[in-house]
Specification:
Order of helices and strands: EHHEHEEEEEHEHEEEE
CATH architecture: 4-Layer Sandwich
Strand content: 25-35%
Distance between the termini: 12 Å
Structural class: alpha+beta
CATH class: Alpha Beta
Shape: globular
Helix content: 10-25%
Oligomer: single chain
CATH superfamily: Endonuclease/exonuclease/phosphatase
Largest sheet: 6 strands, mixed
Strand order of the largest sheet: 3-4-2-1-12-11
Number of domains: 1
CATH topology: Deoxyribonuclease I, Chain A
């Protein structure tokens, strides 16, 4: 099987350099229709069995009111679940543009279970959960604040702890300043391992220095390969692809 994780930055493009990144912040306000077509083509070509995408536009003016998740699911002929990244009481749920920002999980097989959870703290709190082919998949986008991330990881540890003997994949943009080192205690507590064993950086695309994006997996999964696709510069983050098999299903 194949798993793809990608932070697509609301399909607003990948800057070519640090100065260009700072000078092009206005891109988050412009139409994403043209660039999204390139993302559709790339994600479709990867042909993953399960795909986790954060920073999707669910229907703001940038997309001419179209939901990127629904469009991408149609392109891949796959099932999907999409949720707003902000908790129900958040002011972001009532603000233009922000209220349309979310994350999504796509899968070739229909999800046996699909839930949305929310961390107890942070501005963006969404934890997506899907059970696909007997594996529990969690998709997250953690806070920029290190202290808030610590609390979110404790919440996530409790969620993962409910999976018992099922294989688990946890993927997302963890926003870690110290890469996998910051996740050491979380991985020890949950038994998860980093598929990107060498800790190759995923951000920023023009000069990758930091490992922000992760695919973590449980002992019930055998990883054959994990790649950071450095040649793909459709976002400010690089995509991660993991090829694996579910040992319980073999």
């Amino acid at each position: 099987m194949r798993f793809l994780f990608y932070n697509i930055a609301y399909a607003t493009g990948g800057p070519r350099s640090a100065p260009h990144f700072l000078m092009s912040m206005h891109r988050y306000l412009r139409s994403s229709r043209r660039h999204f077509k390139h993302l559709q083509e790339f994600i479709h070509a990867v042909d993953a069995d399960i795909t986790g995408v954060v920073e999707m536009d669910g229907g703001s003016y940038r997309t001419r009111r179209k939901n990127h998740a629904s469009e991408l699911a149609d392109t891949m002929a796959q099932h999907h679940n999409y949720y707003s990244k902000y908790h129900h009481g958040s002011i972001a749920r009532r603000m233009p543009v922000l209220k349309h920002q979310g994350n999504a999980i796509f899968s070739r097989s229909p999800a046996e279970l699909s839930n949305s959870h929310f961390f107890t703290c942070g501005f963006k709190r969404l934890v997506m959960e899907s059970r696909i082919e007997g594996a529990d998949v969690y998709l997250v986008h953690l806070a920029l604040s290190q202290e808030v991330r610590r609390k979110q990881l404790r919440d996530l540890e409790r969620l993962v702890g409910r999976c018992h003997d099922r294989p688990v994949i946890v993927a997302g943009d963890f926003n870690t300043r110290r890469g996998g080192e910051e996740l050491r205690q979380f991985m020890l507590s949950t038994g998860l391992q980093n598929a990107n064993m060498r800790g190759h950086p995923t951000f920023p695309t023009w000069n990758p220095k930091r490992e922000l994006d992760f695919i973590l997996y449980s002992p019930g999964i055998k990883v054959h390969s994990c790649r950071v696709l450095r040649q793909v510069r459709l976002s400010d983050h690089l995509p991660l692809v993991m090829d694996f098999e579910l040992l319980n299903n073999s």
